[in-house]
Design goal:
about 5% strand, GTPase activator activity, about 270 residues, single chain, about 45% helix, Phosphatidylinositol 3-kinase, Chain A, Wheat Germ Agglutinin (Isolectin 2), domain 1, elongated, mainly alpha
Length: about 270
């Protein structure tokens, strides 16, 4: 048994129910994945955790390639695991990615996953799927540069502005192919995921809604410190880029991920 019984010194959220374990109260901590629980919530934690890896943790912040595996498709395990969890039990939730998860839990889980490096603790014990969505968005927002990169940012905006659909599609495909491999593969993986979310009638998150949520996250700005004016001007154009990317055929995105996307799902 890898459980450790301890007394809480600073209040922390329970990894199962999400409510705070208050100062001085008893808690159970897993020696392997460091998950902290109320003693009464221990029975509900059915998901097997993964032992902490021997290698070093991921950086607190970096570009996407810093988190990607060494063999293709180059999609970070954190992204794969969050997406898998959302698709397993979140496609019936209204407002997926729009409804915020508890901020404290999002921060806690993001930190836990980053600290774990490649061998991630299971997300099955996160009761609220919106927290998992929050972790994914927070990870993408916290990168040193957006997924479309600073250097290709203007090209993405220009391509999305082309009024003719066919010409716009051709231009976007060309810009996507110029992305660093990890950024390109991860963008492809996320686009296929967001298309599945948009097709779920329960989620009520169509392409327009999803592009509003993910525009700032995926497209961002052309520099790390945009002016307030640039932020204001960029926002509608960011959404347009994501909406246009989501209009590209799924087969285009699948082409970057190899024959079967299933090989991305962690066992």
């Amino acid at each position: 048994d890898s459980a450790l019984f301890l007394q809480v010194i600073r209040p922390e959220p329970c990894g199962v129910c999400g409510s705070r374990i208050r100062f001085g109260k008893a808690a159970v901590k897993c020696r392997q994945c460091q998950l902290l629980l109320h003693p009464k919530c221990r029975e509900q934690c059915h998901s097997p955790c993964m032992p902490r890896p021997r290698h070093h943790a991921w950086p607190r912040e970096g570009v996407l390639a810093d988190f990607a595996p060494t063999t293709p498709p180059l999609v970070p395990a954190l992204v794969v695991q969050c997406v898998t969890e959302v698709e397993t039990r979140g496609l019936t939730e209204t407002g997926l990615y729009r409804v915020p998860g508890a901020e404290q839990l999002v921060r806690e889980w993001k930190w836990r996953l980053l600290r774990a490096g490649g061998a991630l603790p299971a997300l099955g014990s996160v009761a609220d799927i919106h927290v998992v969505c929050g972790v994914l968005k927070d990870f993408l927002r916290g990168l040193k540069e957006p997924l479309v990169t600073f250097s290709l940012h203007p090209a993405f905006l220009r391509a999305a502005d082309i009024p003719d659909d066919a010409a716009c599609s051709t231009a976007l495909r060309h810009v996507v192919s110029k992305l660093p491999p990890a950024n390109r593969d991860t963008l492809a993986f996320l686009m296929l995921h967001l298309l599945r979310v948009s097709h779920s009638s329960d989620c009520k998150m169509d392409v327009f809604n999803l592009s509003r949520v993910f525009g700032p996250t995926l497209v961002g700005h052309s520099s790390a410190n945009p002016t307030p004016l640039v932020i204001m001007e960029d926002t509608p154009r960011q959404c347009k880029v994501v909406a246009r990317l989501l209009s590209l055929p799924p087969d285009f995105w699948r082409g970057f991920l190899g024959t079967e996307q299933e090989n991305l799902v962690p066992m």
